[in-house]
Amino acid sequence: MVNIEKREFKVADEYFYNRSGPVRWLLSHLWRHKLFLTSFAVSVLSLNLVHAWIPRLTGQAFDAVTASDARAQLIRIALLILLAVIIRAVGDVGSSYSCEVLGKRLTRDARDELYLSLLGKSLTFHNRQRIGDVMARATGDVNTLSDMIVPGAQLIVDSFLSLILPIIFIGFLRVELLLAPLLFTVAFLFALRHYMNQLSPVSGAMRMHNGNMDATLNEAVVGIEVVKSAVQEAQELNKFKTSARLYRDFFVKQGQVQAFYLPQLIMGVALAGAFAHGLFLVVQGSLTIGDLIGYMGLMGLLRFPTFISIFTFSLLQMGIASAERILGLINQESDMDENEHGHRDNLNGDLRFENVTFSYNGHPVLKNISFHAKPGQTIAIVGQTGSGKSSLTKLVNRTYDADDGRVLIDGVDVRDWSMDALRSQISTIEQDVFLFSRTVAQNIAFGLGQKADRTAIEQAAHEAQAHDFITRFADGYETVIGERGVTLSGGQRQRLAIARALLSEPRILILDDSTSAIDSATEDEIQKAIQRVLEGRTTLLITHRLSQIRWADHVLVLKGGEIVDQGTHEELLARCDLYQRIFARYN
User: Fold this and answer.
1) Cβ proximity of 3 and 14 under 8 Å
2) Cα pseudo-dihedral 439, 441, 446, 448, rounded to 10
3) Which of 37, 74, 251, 346 is least surrounded, with the fewest CB atoms within 10 Å of its CB?
4) This prediction's pTM
């Protein structure tokens, strides 16, 4: 099984699964745990062998009553039944334990595989996804896999053996008695196939609408501030009700399919036919009363697969539908690969764009961009909204790749760099700083993970002008901040982001309008921190603040995805009308 998925991130010793289809994918997951699979097979087989043996022993006991040595035979049969019950109990425990482990390991491995795949997908891929639907696949669909195995697959295998082994025992009892169970089996399989064909599209639609419902809920919760400020609670409620109603409707359709489940009716007819046939043979003298009792006991075992299949095959279909949704997400093409064996070196920070053209979803964003930033230089990028400023910076760390032209770092095309080596030496501080619901120290150290010590974290916070406000918190650096940093002010979030950048010691730094939403008093503190960050680093600075542009060694003016002029601040102010208008508007 070869995994050819392109990913920006991979792990060592990864186990590769067969992704050619949902059923093969599920089987490859189960086959990974051969020991428990074998234990389950042996346990469930032994369980059903002795389960089918008990009715035969019961029939022999009826015949033994009239024998001359009835007492001895009945004692022997009673001991054999006791042994069978003990073996059945042990087999039941073994099969249940093994199957439970298989189910939980399947969900764990599937969730790990999906998460790893999502981490490795490009930003272009993630921009196309609805977060709620992704979460539904990672939680609801993965959990459905566990239900598919336990009790779903466990009972299917159990019921399959409960169908086959009693028929085999009946054949050993008397070949003529196979007529009723074989006719029942053929009719049962046809009815089951019809049931599965009806159930399959309903199960797939149920999982799809579950994802849509979760996506609708997620969008409303994430955008709750916009919903409330626009007084659109009623609209969002109606939207969610519509999604929930569709999800409910397919549950009803599933119930309608199950209501017309035929095998139980077929089972009733088969039992009546089997009893009539057995009585006929008894009257003919071809069958003893004990054999008839044993025969009907074995026929009674067929009730279990008949009854349980309405439940188990529903779980199976739901599991396959969920596997298809999970696999569909994993198998979606990503734009980039980590280039594991690509160029690795310490960056000097020499950055060059050579006739770079880039489009997003077929729409041109950048056209023939060329400029050169020497190590340690600061390049300011200005332009009106939609001119392509942020897209330009995202080509540097390969968030996106250029369609034409080249982006070179230290003379090497960024596409030839190892993704890990490239991105670990480039930091971005954006206007909308993302902070995790973790401690202040963990957020600052995020770029280094476990490698950062407390001394280095506090030093970075000092240099980012963040130490004072951090120590005013009751728990200091161990203060847990809210998701996305909602418990902090804009200036505090910016300074933590700067501290995070300082700690990782990037050679190339990208500041994307990072102070646009900061008040003047806070900006003074941010400016001090930014000046410290810029020292010795090649910097791309997206800003309209005159106070920051004055730091720049070179300024690019963008319009409609093209560089219309470039030079120093003074040169552009003297000759570029667009540059003059931008400053008249923003300063």
Assistant:
1) yes
2) -150
3) 346
4) 0.71
